[in-house]
Every structure is written in C-alpha cells, then in structure tokens.
Amino acid sequence: MKVDAGSYRRFIRGEKPPTTKFVIEFCKKFGDNLLLDAIYASQKTFTARRLRVILPTILTPKLAYYTGYLYGDGYLTSDEKRVGFTDEDLEQIEYIKELTKEMFGWNGIIRETHAAGQQKPCYEVCVTSTVINYYFHRVFGMPRGVKKDLHFPALFLRSNELKAAFIAGAFDSDGTLPKHPEKAVQLFIDITYKDQAFIEEIREALSTLGISTLEPYCRRGKKPFSQEESIVWELRIRRKAEIRNFLEKIPIAHPNKKERAIRILSTMGP
Fold first, then answer.
1. How far, in Å, CA of 61 to CA of 124, rounded?
2. How would you write 1-67 as a 3-class SS string?
3. CATH code that applies to domain 154-268
4. Looking at CB atoms within 10 Å, which of 45, 108, 195, 270 has the fewest?
5. How far is residue 261's CA from residue 24's CA, in Å, rounded to a whole number?
6. What does the alpha-carbon distance between residue 28 and residue 119 come to, in Å, rounded to a whole number?
7. From CA 222, how far away is CA 229, in angstroms rounded?
C-alpha cells in the first residue's frame, strides 16, 4: 500500500493522522467496510495531500444547518472527491465557506458561474475533500451524485435545537417567502423538495416543534428549457399565526431570506 513501516506504526499508536488514501486502501485490501466506519468514528483528524481534515464529533446547530443546506443547494460528487454548494447570494456562499473552515479546518474555493438562460450570476463553493464527502455520505446518509430518496437525518432528531437548525438549512436552500411582504396579498412560507417522504419527515419534525402546516401538495409542471414533466412536493404554511411561529422558532440564516422574515414579522405587529 506504499506506506513505510515507520508511518504505519505512528498511525497505529495515534501519533500521526492516517491519510485518507491509506485508510480506504487498507479497508479495500482486507474487505472490511465496518473497519472503515470504526476508524472514522474514532479518529477526529485525517490527512489528504498533507493537509489535515477535522471531522466534527459533536452534533451542533451549525453542523445541522450546514447539513440541511447541503441537502438542498449542495451536492456530493459521485466520484467521492468533492462537496459543493450553489446560491445566487454571494454572502450566503461566503458564510458556507466560513462554516467549512470552522468545522472541518478546510478551505473551499468560491467561483462565479452562469447557468444557461439566466442573466444573474450564481456562486459556488467547492470543497475538494474525499474525507468530507465520505463523512456526509456515511454519517448522515446524504446520497452522492443525483439527490434522491432523501431522509431527515436521525441524528438531528435528538433535540429541538438540532431539528430547528437542520430545517433552517433546508429552508434557506429550497424554501420561499414573499419578496415584498408589505405588498403581498397573502403571506406564505413554502418548502419544496422532490422527495415526498422527506417533505413528510420535515412536516413531522415541525409538528414536534409546535409548528403546523398544510398537507403536502404535489405540484406538476415542465422543467425549464424542456418538455419533461417535473414533480415536486411543497410544504405550505398560510395561517399568519403559524407563519409567525415558524419564523420565531426556525433560525433562518440566509441573508436575503432572513431580511424578508424580519419584514414579515414587522408587518404582523406585536
């Protein structure tokens, strides 16, 4: 496996973090995926290209938010090498980059992109790390490649604070509320995902936080620039009391949506 005896002994004694390549090749050689999980569970720091990656060992609201946002506007590449996030708001992408550095000790790279048919630029933060990719895939069940069969991570159901933070991340990526609350005929909050089961699980989690929603709504349409049918599921809140309840309990962090939320609450009065 191209590891010298001295390095191997330091890995075993815990004197030096093992490289990601070494851990994966070791487990492939001996055919033990359970061993790979055990190593990741016990080891806080790994090296990749001589750089150290820190894996969170404590569940925090920031980690829950980051994961929720990853479920919506993020992705894990199928080649297992990268984690990425996209958003039209540069400030939000910079915040995600800061969280990556804070929690994993790893620097992401921000770049500007232009999607076909869109005039406004979009921003992406790319985190090149097999360790972080593996972490979200194995610990939280985030699928690689095409996102499907999403589920609310069981680890974040352990406390109301973690639930609320994860939902905030999911909402900041794929949630909507009026752009101009003062002019809106009807105030609303929507959360939209393709997976019905995921929407049902978010609804159940909101219920445990004392927040009621309407029944999930199936919306059918055409995909942009295509005749292919698009099916998504929406979780809707329309009652003013429940909109207030949601905005007061869910810690929205996205700069644009947070500003709108403040304006909505101000229009409702005390």
1. 23
2. CCCCHHHHHHHHHCCCCCEHHHHHHHHHHHCCHHHHHHHHHHCCEEEECCEEEECCCCCCHHHHHHH
3. 3.10.28.10
4. 270
5. 45
6. 46
7. 5
Could you give the CA distance from residue 93 to residue 172 in angstroms, rounded to a whole number?
12
Distances (CA, A) of 206 to 52, 127, 142, 165, 238: 37, 31, 21, 11, 15
Q: What averages of pLDDT result for each successive group of 10 residues across the chain (270 residues)?
A: 53 53 52 46 50 82 97 95 94 97 93 79 93 90 92 94 98 95 92 96 98 94 68 95 97 96 88
Same fold, 61-140 and 154-268: yes
Q: DSSP 3-state assignment of 209?
A: coil
Domain positions in the chain are 5-43, 61-140, 154-268
Q: For residue 97, how many other CB atoms are within 10 A of its CB?
A: 20
Does pTM top 0.85 for this prediction? no
- What amino acid is encoded at 147 in this protein? K
Best CATH choice for the domain 61-140 from the list 3.10.28.10, 3.40.50.620, 3.90.950.20, 3.40.640.10: 3.10.28.10
CB 52 within 8 A of CB 43: no
Structural tokens at position 4:
């010298």
